[in-house]
Each structure stands twice: as C-alpha cells, then as structure tokens.
Amino acid sequence: MNPITGKRENKAELLEHEFDWEDRGACKDSESSTTTNVSPSRGDWYAREGTETDDLQHLQYSGVHSSWVRKIETAIRNSCEYYFRTQHSDGYWWAELESNVTITAEYVMLLRILDLKNPAAERSMVRYLLNKQMPNGAWGLYYGDGGNLSTTIEAYFALKLAGEDPESDALRRARQFILDHGSIESARVFTKIWLALFGQYPWDKVPSMPVELVLLPPHFYFNIYEFSSWARGTVVPLSIVLAIRPRYPLPEEAGVRELYVSDSSGTCRRFQSCTHKLFYLFDRIAKAFERNPIRSLRNRAVQEAETWILEHQEESGDWGGIQPPMVYSILALYYLGYPLDHEVIRKGLKALEDFCIEDEEGLRMQSCVSPVWDTALTCLALLDAGIPTDHPAVQKAARWLMEKQVTTGGDWQVKNCCPPGGWAFEFINTQYPDVDDSAVVLSTLNRFNPDRCDGLTCVKERGMEWCLSMQSLCGGWAAFDKDNNMVILNRIPFADQEAMVDYPTADVTGRVIEAMGYFGYDRSHPRAQRAIQFLLDLQEPDGAWWGRWGVNYIYGTWSVLKGLISIGEAPESPCIRKAVRWLKDHQNPDGGWGETCDSYENPELRGQGPSTPSQTAWAIMSLLACGEEKSPEVYRGIQYLVRTQQADGTWEELYFTGTGFPKHFYIRYHNYRNCFPLMALGQYRQKLQAEASFLR
Asked: Is residue 276 in some structural domain?
C-alpha cells in the first residue's frame, strides 16, 4: 500500500466555526485568492507603518481582521484540508519514512541469496538506486551529505548483482569514490557482513558476536537484554548467521575485487583507544573460540536463538518493526534449513514487501513504518489548529489510537514488572512499545472528553502508568527499555555504529513530563523532580539540549522546553531563559530555523543549517511555550511558515530532520514537514485569540 495516497471514505468538511477569529474575524470566504507559496512583498505583510514588534502588537490587540490574520487562517485551513484528504479510511495517517539506500540495496541482496526472482521489482529498485546517486558517484546518508563510503559500497554491489555494467558511468563514478575514500577495508561492519555472505569479504575479519550469548540469563551482569531492543533483535539472528558463515556462490566477474586498494582484502580496522584495544583482544579470543566451539554448547545456543526468533515474530510477520531484525531473522532461519514456503519465512517476506513503496522514482524499501507516530502527531496538529474533538476525522483517529494500545508483554518486562499499556511506532509491534510514541499518544488522547469516548479513561490511566514505570534510575526515560545504559557496549568492534544501548535521553524525557503536565502532575511530584534534575544535568553550557531522535539541538531543546513548561517550570527560570536566548540567536535571516545532520559529527554546527519547516516549527513552539509570542523572532518564524506553504496546504522539505542513530542513520519523515508547521501555526493562533479575548 502506498502511504502517500490513502483516502478517507467520506471527506469531512470544515465547519465554519472551526476557523472563527473571535466572533467576527473568521476567514469564511476566499477574500485573498493568492496561493501561499508566493512570497509576498514587505508591504503585503504589514498593515501599517512601524516596527515589526509594534505591528505585531497592533494586530494582536486591535481585533482587526487584518491581512496578517487572514494569511494565518488560510494557511491553517489549507493544511487541515490536506490532512482531511489524506486520512485513511480506518482513521490513521501514514507517510513515508525515508532513509538511505542501503535498505533497498540489502533487499536486492536478500532476494538474490534466497533466489527469489522478480525482474520487474529488481529493475524498479535499480531505477531508484540510480536516481539517488549523486554527481560525485556516491550515495549519502541524508540530503546534503557529500557521500558515505558504506552506503556507496552497498549500492554499487546491489547494482552489480542486478546486472548493471561495471563499466557504466554510474558504477565507474561510484567505484572511484569508494577507492578514494578507503575502499572496503574502511566500511562499516554490516557492509562487510553483506559482502561476506557473498564471499566478497573474509568471515575471519568480521567482528565476533558469539551465538552463545543467548544462553546468559537475564540476571547475569552481561546478557542480550543489556543490548537495546533494536540491537537485540538484530544480534540474536545475526549471531546464527555468523556461526554458520554461509557463502552464496558468485562468479568472479560478479564480485567486487575491484573495490580493494590492494590484494590484502579484509584488512581489519585497528582501534586506537585503550578500551577499543581491550575489546579487540576479546574479539580475537572469541574468534579462536568460534573456530573450535564446544559443539554441544554451540548447538544448544543455536536452538535457543532459533526459539527466540520464532517467539518474537509478530502475527503480521514482522520482527521488531524494523528492517534489520526482519532481514536477519529470515536469513538465520533460511540457513537453518527453513524452506521459503514455511509460514514463518513466508510471513516475514510479506512483512518486508509491505515496507516497500513504488512510484516514479522506483521501488524502495522503508526501514520502518510510522502510522502510530504520524497519526498521534497529526491529530495533535489538527486539535491545535482548532478542529473540535467531535470532528469525525479526529474522532476516528482517536479511536484508532486507542485500539493500538499494546496490552501484552514484551522484552521491556525483563527490567519492569508493570502491566503493559504503551504504544508502538508501527501498525503492529507488541514486543516493543516505546515511551516516545506512548507519551505523544497520551497527550493526544488527553484532549478528548472521556464521557464521549468509551473506555478512554482506562486507556489513559493504563498508558500513563506504563510510561511512568519506564523511568530509569537516573531520572530520565529511554525509548524502549529502562536502565539500558551499559554504554561500554558501544566500544566493542561489532558496534561501529555506537547503537548497542538505549540510554535515557533529554528529548524522550521532555516528552514524558510534557504528558505528565497535561495529566495534572506538577514539578513537585517525585518522578518529575528526578526528571527535571536529569534534564538540567544534560543542558549544554549555551542553553541547548542534544536531540537523540531528531536533528538535533533544535529538536532536543524543543522537546525539553515543552516538557519543562508543561510540568510547571517557570518561564523566567535561568535554564529556560538560556535556552530561549540560544534559539533566538540561531534564527536564520529568512525567519526560519535549520540544523544540519553534520551537527552530530561537529557540535560547533549546532543550530546551523538551511531553514526547514519542521525545525522552524520546533523553534516557534519552544518560544511560544516560554511566553515569547510577542517576540519578533516568533513573528518572523510564522512569516516563514506562511510564506513557504504550497498551494495544496503542504510544505516542501528535502532535508532529513529525523534521527535513527546519530552520525550513522538519519530519517526524512515525510509527515514532519506538514504536521509540525500546522502545530506551530495553530498554537500561535491560540495565543493571539487568548490576547484578543482577554482585551475584550
């Protein structure tokens, strides 16, 4: 199913009162017929002479139905109508989750290993890969990236497997980029594993991950439950593959020997820090064990890992709701002898197929799908925009969200005995509900009247109890587990993406205390006190907060400020004023805000980058929460959003503003560019209405 083109069965029309400005200021007709993607002149923006601040105050306090108010009303109306058009009949919204091309390249490789031939699909994936190649021959991690070595190697190999001529211009340019940037020897571990599966990289040079780890009990100091949920779901099946060390036969001309800078293929990276050197020594010891395992122990471990995989498959065929566990689980079972028509394999392949999207660019696979996240954020945006809670669109969305509450157990229960009650990111992921989604869903559902929504009170209470129970000892919240903070695991040779643990973060913690505030908790609550101290300890000297799940300091700062204000922190407190000053200091000349993914590699770039609708909205909402609605920075930010909106009510955003793994994996949420600007416009409009109502 293409998530972009979902339609509602009956399009709900906007009610007149939904966009009333006071009693007489509603934009009930198309008085201004110009489309909002046309940049107006300065004279169009101002209703009278004076400074920006004076003009803004005049508009706020006069109650005049000005051109400025009409522009805001029109932008909100157009955005809401877009969402009404694109809501799925079941009540959810679901937009594309775009990442880098390795996800699609690995799908090409998987289908080749399984000997599943689909020439039309393969040609479409080739078209997609070629469309994403940059002029320098590389493929990047995100829009604006100069190119990434591992991504380029995987795309090159997939294209060659699909029959592309190695002497074609595309592959020649890619090959040159690879050789100029360190070749295969410098690639990431997962790239080397994929090459090893085809005999293009020696298994002995792949970092170890002994399958015997699954035998260590949860109470043992180190066990698989000290890994993050995403690492655990990947490591368990992959450890079977590493134990088997399979090799798909390829003719020599189909290989990638040309991507080595010398004949010493498989040179292993030498780590420089003492910790890395120590783990490298452990890796060598583990390799010696792998060459001469205790057979009875190895067989028992493989059986245990196999059972774990089978027990963790969802009814829909997914494993963990993300591509890596799904792909490696299928491979592990295939190498254990499961036939392709076995129900487990068949369902797994169908789940991968459901992750695919095909359009004029070609066929591509998403790393994940995000309907719960998209629906909760979109519903919040519509409510912020003034859509009443009895409107059919948001009513249907709320019911759908209630039905998606996870009421069964999962891996999180290893360290938490609380009854289940969270929400997952995807359509189905009962093993791994996450705190971030749950907090946003709870914030959304809290807007609805429980007297008009059967079962809502029970759903909310159960969800909040689960969220609170996931607080770690340090006072913060992580995404999927509590107290999953053995960060030294990020130093093992296998963990070159530094994503082996799920430690508490500022952005998730901010989201939880924001929801707590909506539920009536205040800063005096013991859990809130610990969370606030956790956040204060993480604040940067310049006032910003680092963002784990969004790019980057703008996202983190927004998440924390919204949470602190909601839980009762005073807007004039020093930590908040410092953050406000940081945001104001990083506004771009065009009125927007932007931050590049490079800020993860180079923190000096924090808060810097081309303006984007989503990051601008985060900054505006931060300032609005802190009482800065009258500031010229907010005014110019709103101008930016109104000016850049397109005629169909959407915004354009090429840059990646979502984060999977900092420095290594980024996401372009196609819903972000639309839902967050609508939130910001709606919240700004609420502030103006409140001022006008007060003065009346």
From this structure: yes
